[in-house]
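Re: the 443-residue chain
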Amino acid sequence: METTTVIIGAGHSGLAMSRRLSDRSIDHVVLERGQVANSWRTERWPTLRLQTPNWQTRLPGHHYVGNDPDGFMGMPELIDFITGYAGTIEAPVHTGTTVFSVRPVPGGYGEGYEVVTDQGTWRADSVVLASGPANVAVVPAVAAGVPEAITTRTSMDYKGPDTIPDGGVLIVGGSATGVQLAEEIHRAGRPVTLAVGEHVRLPRLYRGRDILWWMDAAGVLDERYDEVDDLTRARHVPSPQIIGTPERITIDLNSLAARGVRVTGRLAGVRDGVAQFSGSLRNQCTLADLKLNRLLATLDEWCTRAGLDTDVERPRRFEETRLDAAPALTLDLRRSDIRTIIWACGYRADHSWVDLPVFDRHQRIRHDGGVVTDAPGLYLLGTKFLRRRRSTYICGAEQDTLELSAHLHHFLDHHEGAIALSAMDGPASRPGTTRSRLAFAKG
């Protein structure tokens, strides 16, 4: 089977790229191991809501049209949104197709790629990796010391408070997922301990508007990947402590502690059944508070320049993070009320099926804003801060796919020209690569 471009993954990023390629009349297929929006269907807990307001949930040519623009989509709504998009754009999706390998066609680079699946092998000039950044939940090495009597789950395994044993819960990780789970499980009546390391503190509302409205309007989300001093750092900063609720509440360590959640430092180890917590919690909280105030100052300055000061509430600063005078440094898991540990330590991508020398020493794909290094015609989509800060969110796929589809189009045009020159000296290196397959839309 042959096509011009294979997109791997029918989530929001893969479908957005499909729309862009269709706009350019580039022949392509979208391969999906499960159903459209598979990760949202199978790897998230049922009560999860998006962090982004409905008005900000948009894809190329598709946006929210309901009567609650300031609300937050739950999983059923989001799945319907993405599935509806796939139908609207008539994306050529092949569901139930598991990719086993992406590799160069025989003959090496420059001749395209083979995508080996359980439904056959595709050959293509270009491949877009849009399988997402959150395929595997991160479990720290300290998990090996947890007593067998304690149930452990990852945030991908968790399906609700009623699916874990009775008793207390230790949640390891204080980013977006960790605080959401802490709030939900404590609200269900369970004692919760939250182990927190580095984190990003954000209010849900600021000066009467959603914090993401401010970051969008002030251009914070449009900062480019080639404009930051430390891109690696920017791509691995923890996700901010914001959650989407109908009440638009702010969840941070202060609000969780006020509700009765026990806050400790980062889980540093488990020895002989005793959890050991880092003593750096106060420093981590001080840093998070400082960064929050810097952001709010930036937003205030933009607000004044934009002449909006009289249209919104007055500037304010939030109370610094409150901590116990001496946060606990140890917890005997055998003797405590802890019956379950949930690892909310983040996720990582799984590209183990990419059989190409494109990985760095951390097994991350090397790329320049989504253009994979040393692999012409290979692209990466859907990762944090891919091309802009907004790449982290669904709406980021609009601009990312616009720019990467243009790059891909240019690559194919150049690639086709090179093959045509080669054909003047003899047969093309492989059949089927002709201008008729690439009905490019110029301009």
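The first helix runs from residue 12 to 23.
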